Amino acid sequence: MAAGREVCRTQGDRVTVLPTARRGEAHASPRRDRPDDVPLPARSPWGRRRRTGLLFTAPAVAFVAVVMAYPLAYLVYLSFHTYRPLTSSEVIPAGLGNYVKLFTDSAVANSMTVTLQFTVMSVILEMVVGTSCAILLANVMLGARSRGSRLAARILGSAYVVPFAVPAVAGAYAWRMLLDAQFGPLNALAGTAVPWLVEYPLLSIVLIDAWKMIPFVIFVMLAAVMSIEPTQYEAAEVDGAGALRQLFAITLPSILPIMVVTAAFRAVDAFTKVFDTVFATTGGGPGDDTRVFPLLIWRTAFTHLDFGTSAAQALAALAISLVFGTAMFLSQRGSSR
Q1: Is 77 inside any structural domain?
Q2: Fewest CB within 10 A of the end CB: N or C in the chain?
């Protein structure tokens, strides 16, 4: 009778008697169109977010692609042609002649060597000084207790970005006056008359570039140092580790992935974009001592008006940027795993 009442009460549903159920008990489940009670696959929120992100970024990507497509295509076109407006207004096919010249010209080899030396020296100097300053600044900011010390830490934590905010050409001309042999304050303080941009040209532009870009390294590395859990240092102090041991056992290993990515980014920027500082200080001289690769491209195009050769050189610089960028992406991907 109880089972009958159960069937009447669940009329229209399929009645399923569980094997483990007691006699007279039944379990009612809703009728389904599917033959098996297989649950539907859940939709991942990450897929929906990815589609939304692609939808929002698609207009910007399309705009950049349209703006860059024609110049890049014309650059590739010119690299296989000879175009010298001083001698002829015609664009003459050159085949692989511009690329052969790229690998056989001694000026290109010398420029590549100078650019590589500049990149290595500037990146090492910026990473060492920038990381050291970031660690010291983090200790000052975290160790500030009184109101005056906290105010001083805030001022110090924001004043270091001033060189990075100065335009590169303005900073280069300022350093040109500072390093002047006759009227420069540096020689006046040292009591010397050293023409720094003539006797030490490469070292001078490395120092000028480091002065401008070290604040960027400090900014990135300071964020990395501040993100380290304080409990790690507390546990190290309990174990009796000193400041030097904490630096090499906790701080440096924790920020090493960020250091690698930052160094790769700076290498790309230093190798392919060092133009304004050199142009405003040494102009590539004396001789060819500071003629970096971007300056060589500019001179080939706008001084010698050899646009075919300069197009091949520009594509070589683009290829180098892609290699550095791929290495940076792979290192970042490997550090995130």
Answers
A1: no
A2: C
